[in-house]
Design a protein that fits this description.
Layout lengths: L1 E2 L15 E2 L2 H34 L3 H14 L1 H21 L8 H21 L3 H10 L8 H4 L3 H19 L17
Antiparallel strand pairs: 1-2
The chain binds protoporphyrin IX containing FE.
């Protein structure tokens, strides 16, 4: 990492925050950021498959196993990927010309990332004990609790938001916050 004053003249516009990511650090952080975002999407797809299997699986044993796997493995890997994506995104925003609240595409991604991580903690995680219990009792004809009936929403909401975030990252639309300049694609 370098201070703004030691940046070579050929580098892009300096970061707003006062520190600038050097080329190598920027690439490393961006790679981590993209891997975390990709892992997050992959975990969401896995969650969607488990929710589908739990609902429509071939027999009670497979369905129960899907719910128990969901309760055991979904939340923490998803939250970890979301937090790594958030932290690396914060570093990229603060350490480059993009800033955090300077361009609409970054500000919207920041909002989406914060909302999704909050939903994992306050809406998804608390219901997992009931999902696991239902997975264990499914063979005995137990009725699904609300936590199980509403399980389609988390992967649907998350996959939609992460797709929007990915599109925003590539297209970088809407220009700068508080400026009339609304070019659709920002030059890098
Ligand atoms: C919500 C989940 C997120 C996903 C799926 C995501 C995805 C991506 C992808 C694919 C890129 C590469 C774009 C390219 O190089 O053309 C990128 C870049 C970037 N992201 Fe994210 N991102 C997310 C969250 C965030 C957050 C929360 C922030 C800021 C707080 C952020 C800030 C940035 C910045 C500044 C870049 C450009 C880095 C550079 O050009 O050096 N991202 N993001």
């Amino acid at each position: 990492m370098r201070s703004a004053s030691t940046m070579p003249a050929t580098r892009p516009a300096p970061a707003v925050s006062g520190f600038v990511l050097g080329r190598r650090w920027r690439r490393t952080t961006l790679i981590l950021h993209i891997i975390a975002g990709g892992a997050w999407i992959g975990i969401d797809v896995m969650v969607a498959v488990l929710v589908w299997t739990g609902r429509y699986g071939s027999d009670a044993e497979v369905r129960g196993l899907a719910y128990r796997a969901l309760a055991a493995f979904a939340v923490w890997p998803m939250l970890t990927a979301g937090l790594i994506c958030l932290l690396s995104g914060l570093v990229l925003g603060l350490g480059t010309k993009w800033g955090l609240l300077r361009y609409w595409w970054v500000a919207v991604k920041l909002t989406l990332n914060l909302v999704l991580c909050t939903l994992i903690i306050v809406a998804l995680e608390p219901g997992m004990a009931a999902v696991a219990a239902y997975g264990r009792e499914l063979g005995s004809g137990a009725q699904p609790p609300d936590e199980v009936s509403s399980l389609f929403f988390p992967p649907a909401v998350s996959l939609t938001a992460l797709t929007v975030a990915t599109v925003l990252s590539v297209v970088k639309p809407w220009g700068r916050i508080g400026r009339r300049d609304r070019r659709t694609t920002m030059a890098r």
